[in-house]
Design brief:
Length: 79
């Protein structure tokens, strides 16, 4: 996958890295962000698992989940 793939004027996707934990956790603990998911929010441990699993999946299969990044703040807002 390219380093960054533009998905709109405001967002792009890229592979996760270990530094994404705090941003992902901040985004996924918000009820408004997860309102259409079967959860009330994600724990920090779950976010660690999401990131590690994604990284390993990409290494093994060359496909997997990506981080969604808000360009203006260069901040992960989802996956």
């Amino acid at each position: 996958m390219k380093k960054k793939l533009k998905i709109s004027e405001k967002y792009y996707i890229r592979l996760f890295n270990e530094n994404d934990l705090e941003d992902l956790y901040e985004a996924l603990k918000e009820p408004a962000v997860v309102r259409h998911m079967a959860t009330e929010g994600f724990s920090k441990d779950t976010c660690i698992w999401i990131i590690k699993d994604s990284i390993e999946h990409w290494k093994k299969y060359n496909i997997g989940s990506c981080a969604v990044v808000f360009k203006e703040e260069n901040k992960v807002v989802g996956w």
